[in-house]
Structure formats: C-alpha cells, structure tokens
Amino acid sequence: MTDAFAAKMAELSARFAAQAGEHRARLAACASDREAIAAQAHKLAGVSAMLGHPHVGEAALALEDKAENGEDYTVELRALDELLAALAG
C-alpha cells in the first residue's frame, strides 16, 4: 500500500466517522420501516467495513439480516446506533 493510498483511506475513514451522526439520523428516520432500515443497514455494512470500521459493518449486517427475515430488529438497531454514536464522539 502506498503512502498516498493509505493517507486517502485514512481521510475517508475519518470522513465516515464524522458523518456518523447523519447515519444515525437516517436510521432513526426509517426505524419503523423494515425495508428502509434493511436498505440503510446494507449501505452502512458495505462502506463501513471498507473504510476501516468492521465493527459497524458487522452490526449493520446483523440489523439487515433481522429486518430482511421479518424478525424483531430492535436490539440490532440499538447496537448499531451505539457504535455510530461512539464514532461521532
């Protein structure tokens, strides 16, 4: 990995963390819509893991799985929200 690439990835990772509040707001806005929450979780799962936040990606995948399977996803949504809150500082 080149220094320039590493620097760019660090910048993108920091930007993702800085936008954690926006991600939380989007999740909260669609919390009662199973399809919308699954879609938001899917997006977060992909980008967060790529940008160095695998714990957020894992939590988002768990949320997506529960929502898509018609199960209660309250615990997973709360867990993901807490991780995003910690990123937001």
What about the largest sheet?
A: none
Strand content: under 5%
Number of structural units classed as domains: 1
Q: Ends: how far apart?
A: 29 Å
Low-confidence stretches: none
Summed up, the helix count is 5
Mean pLDDT: 95
What structural class is derived from the secondary structure elements? mainly alpha
* Shape field: elongated
Give the ordered list of helices and strands. HHHHH
Protein name: HPt domain-containing protein
Domain HPt: 1-89
GO molecular function, one term: protein kinase activity
Keywords: Phosphoprotein, Two-component regulatory system
Task: Explain briefly what this protein structure is.
InterPro entries: HPT_dom_sf, Sig_transdc_His_kin_Hpt_dom. The protein is an all-alpha fold. The protein has five helices and no strands.
Topology (SSEs and partners):
Blueprint: H1 3-18, H2 20-29, H3 34-50, H4 54-68, H5 74-88
Helix pairs in contact: 2-5, 3-4, 4-5
